[in-house]
Write a structure and sequence with these properties.
By secondary structure, the protein is an alpha/beta fold. 59% of the residues lie in helices and 11% in strands. The protein has 37 helices and 18 strands. It is globular and about 95 Å long.
Length: 836
């Protein structure tokens, strides 16, 4: 069905085409200018409006004099041309043109918005609303409500703004105007952004984008991309934010929308700042600030001044920060904008602290931390800054109370999030707060408390799904399982626990045994990243680091293993962090008594968090196997897996005492996973291709045979079906995860299966070899069938390849697979060290 809005656009387009052929009428010319404006073709819209304006400029008694005059002003405002627009709205149409009086007040209110004169803007728009209501023009009423809502947002009147945007949506729909509907949805998202309700903003922007695309409204399309970028930035998903903001910046530049472009530039600068690239951020803020000044947008000028001053502090340039902050504070006072004032005041506090004016800084931080503003990210920052200041002033008890208070606020926001993707992104966004808290505790010598806080920050999404978040929060003063609990886990599991924490200033590693907790300091994450990247590249390129004496491997092992000081023959549960997720620590080269890989000394399982790990779990102990493999995906899209059929046959043979449900060939379709009732199986095995999606890891998929609903089993579908499996094995490429979320780890299939309730998941870090994988799985299930625990069975299989002749002894072939575990269930008999 074609909407009234789409029919109206078709009529306008036809008028524009006829207009281009000659014989323009004033009505057609106005319609053409309006259509071009809505489509975002601003230069062409201005040309059409200017042509009519020149025709009627000398006759103010004519209706068309005012219509073209005000249309030209509207286009200038859309371009950011405030100076050009103001003279066109300074005079009032005659009383007989009541609707045009409303239009003029609407444009005047918009100009006042751009000037930052928000009360004046609202006053003009209230009068415009009254005149628009008298005219009965629903479209005009909607446009007035949209602009009034924006003025209310800038003044912090969020509830009133929400009513205005809803009113605009109702008027727009009743007028059958898709453009207005798209604008209203976008503005509702804009309001949610200002409330720091990023998860609420995203659906609004997605709907606005869909509507804008349908009618070719490029300006709204660009704005939707930009706002989606800002929303995902607020959620901590910087990769997706960068993609959206970059696309919006290019689109705004293409249509000459300088006002929108400077917002995109500032958003990208903010991402550089979060990525801790202050020099790059400073350059981008400088460009955004210059652009905002060109279009005379005081709100954005204030925002970029404020952000630029914060980056200058990061670079150690206190004087430049002070000057820009003074300008931002002065501008914020004229804007009557709550968030502008609070943001500038927060930086003022940082400057005071940098200048040694501790009492002034404390006063500022306390005022913001205790405020009721809805921009909660500012209150978190203030509370974190206050806590750090109190600690440096020797007031540790007050400092910790502040951190705890901020933690409560953070958890309240987290609890509102419904979708897994939003929860994951928010987890990343909150990481910086936890980094400050851990640094505070470690600097105070409180090693065990720092470990508790670090572990409390991990796998929060996973904990919520498994119903464990409440249990975690009730234990320990810091809101995490305490050191005593970790020592009990070490005793009950018979394993050494290791927790890594990577941060910009300095990193840490904690080692937990039944006897206590030991901590050591590691290099900053940036320093470790280069070493890990180099070593990972050597392994995935098929080299043998032991034979070649790889320097990166020696450096990484030298940085980690002496600090861990774990005896040979130990079982190890490791909570990884940051860039360490990209490397299998089993491949670390040990130099004594002769060069060998660390896997020959220890048995390792990777846990999402020590607070989630259990020595035992109530998984199903039935001897049941669900095996899905050797499928027939669409021809030409994926290479054949020659070894898959043999792998399936060998797994069946190794587990012939198990009750088996096997789906192969054309029967290996996505629906069979759910239809089989996966919650009743103790072992689940996939032998198939997999695809990874780094943008949305829950869209990663196992590639199976074609069915009416497609041929992919998605990670998001796996989340919906509860499991009690002891082991799920993904004999495919990159099943471990396609994207790293700070605080949650690698997210992909392994995470999805743990999320669904599996105890252990075997999955690959990189693309795997078909033949060597089949051999490894054969050895793995032989050990499982003989009663081995999953971590020990996987180690046995890897050692078989490592000690074989030929290429398979290289880490590329045996090391891609890791075991990700919540309950590793080591066997009672402890394995001894290997002989070298």
């Amino acid at each position: 069905m074609v909407s009234v809005g789409h029919l109206r656009y078709a009529a306008l387009l036809l008028s524009a085409v006829l207009c281009g052929c000659g014989g323009d009428s004033d009505r057609v010319l106005l319609d053409r200018a309006d259509l071009l404006l809505r489509k975002g073709e601003l230069a062409e819209a201005l040309s059409a409006a200017d042509r009519g304006w020149r025709r009627w400029q000398g006759d103010p008694s004519s209706e068309y004099h005012w219509r073209f005059r005000l249309k030209k002003a509207e286009v200038h405002l859309a371009q950011g041309g405030l100076e050009q627009a103001l003279p066109l709205v300074d005079a009032e149409p005659p009383a007989r043109f009541g609707r045009l009086r409303a239009v003029r007040l609407t444009q005047l209110g918009t100009a006042r918005l751009y000037q930052g004169r928000y009360p004046d803007a609202e006053s003009a728009l209230v009068k415009a609303a009254s005149l628009a209501a008298e005219s009965g023009d629903r479209r005009l009423q909607a446009e007035v409500a949209l602009r009034r809502g924006t003025a209310l947002v800038r003044q912090g009147e969020f509830d009133a703004a929400e009513r205005a945007f809803h009113e605009a949506l109702v008027f727009g729909r009743s007028a059958g105007d898709t453009f207005i509907e798209a604008s209203a949805r976008g503005n509702s998202g804009f309001l949610a952004l200002h409330r720091s309700r990023f998860e609420e903003a995203i659906p609004h922007f997605e709907r606005a984008l869909e509507l804008a695309r349908g009618i070719g409204a490029r300006k709204i399309e660009n704005s939707s991309y930009a706002n989606l970028g800002k929303a995902w930035q607020g959620m901590g998903d910087l990769e997706r934010a960068t993609e959206f903001l970059s696309r919006a910046e290019k689109g705004a530049k293409a249509i000459g929308d300088e006002h929108s472009r400077q917002i995109c530039l500032g958003g990208l600068a903010g991402i550089f700042q979060e990525q801790r690239e202050p020099k790059r951020a400073a350059a981008a803020y400088k460009e955004a600030l210059a652009s905002a000044r060109r279009v005379r947008d005081p709100y954005s000028v204030c925002a970029w001044l404020n952000a630029f001053s914060a980056v200058s502090l990061d670079l150690g340039d206190v004087e430049s920060a002070r000057k820009m902050n003074a300008d931002a504070l002065e501008l914020a006072s004229r804007l009557s904008s709550a968030d502008s004032r609070v943001g500038a005041t927060l930086v003022q506090g940082r400057i005071a602290e940098a200048q040694g004016r501790v009492a002034d800084a404390e006063t500022i931080y306390r005022e913001i931390a205790g405020s009721t503003i809805e921009t909660v990210s500012l209150t978190w920052q203030a509370q974190s800054l206050l806590s750090g200041l109190l600690w440096r002033s020797g007031r540790s008890a007050e400092a910790e109370a502040g951190f705890r208070h901020a933690l409560v606020s953070l958890e309240q926001v987290r609890s509102r999030l419904q979708r897994a993707a939003w929860q994951l992104s928010f987890q990343s966004a909150s990481r910086r707060f936890y980094e400050d808290y851990v640094e505070f505790l470690m600097s105070a010598g409180r090693t065990e408390d720092a470990l508790a806080v670090a572990e409390a920050s991990r796998a929060r999404v996973l904990a919520g799904r498994l119903g464990l978040a409440g249990a975690i929060e009730k234990k320990g003063s810091s809101g995490a399982v305490d050191a005593a609990g970790f020592m009990r886990l070490a005793r009950d599991s018979g394993a050494v626990l290791v927790s890594f924490w990577l941060a910009p200033r300095r990193s840490f590693v904690w080692t937990v045994t039944p006897d206590g907790v030991r901590a050591a300091t590691l290099p900053p994450e940036g320093e470790l990243r280069g070493i890990v990247d180099a070593y990972s590249a050597a392994i995935t390129f098929g080299r043998d680091p032991i034979d070649t004496g790889n320097d990166a491997g020696r450096r990484l092992a030298g940085a980690l293993l002496p600090l861990l000081n774990i005896p040979a023959g130990s079982r190890v549960l490791i909570a990884l962090d940051g860039v360490l997720h990209a490397v299998n620590l089993e491949t670390l080269p040990v130099q004594t008594p002769k060069p060998h890989y660390w896997i020959e000394d220890v048995t390792i399982a990777v846990v999402p968090s020590l607070s989630l790990a259990r020595a035992r779990e109530r998984s199903t102990r039935s001897r049941t196997l669900l095996l899905i493999g050797d499928p027939r995906p669409p021809e030409g899209e994926f290479e054949a897996l020659p070894a898959a059929a043999g792998e399936v046959a060998r797994v069946r043979e190794r587990l012939k005492s198990f009750q088996q449900s096997v789906y192969t060939g054309p029967e290996a379709k996505p629906p069979v996973y759910g239809d089989a009732g996966p919650g009743r199986f103790s072992l689940i095995h996939f032998a198939a291709h997999a695809t990874s999606n780094s943008q949305d890891p829950l869209d990663s998929a196992v590639v199976l045979s074609q069915s009416p609903g497609g041929y992919k089993l998605y990670a998001r579908d796996i989340l919906k079906l509860p499991l009690r499996a002891r082991v799920v094995t993904l004999s495919s490429c990159r099943g471990a995860g396609s994207r790293l979320y700070r605080g949650e780890g690698l997210v992909g299939f392994a995470w999805a299966f743990l999320h669904a309730g599996a105890e252990n998941v075997v999955a690959g870090l990189w693309d795997v070899n078909d033949a060597s994988t089949a051999a490894l799985m054969d050895e793995f299930y032989a050990a499982i069938g003989a009663g081995g625990s999953p971590p020990e069975a996987l180690r046995t299989a890897k050692l078989a390849l490592l000690r074989s002749e030929g290429a398979w002894r290289k880490p590329y072939y045996w090391a891609p697979f890791e075991i990700f575990s919540r309950a590793p269930s080591f066997s009672l008999k402890r394995s001894g060290p290997e002989k070298h």
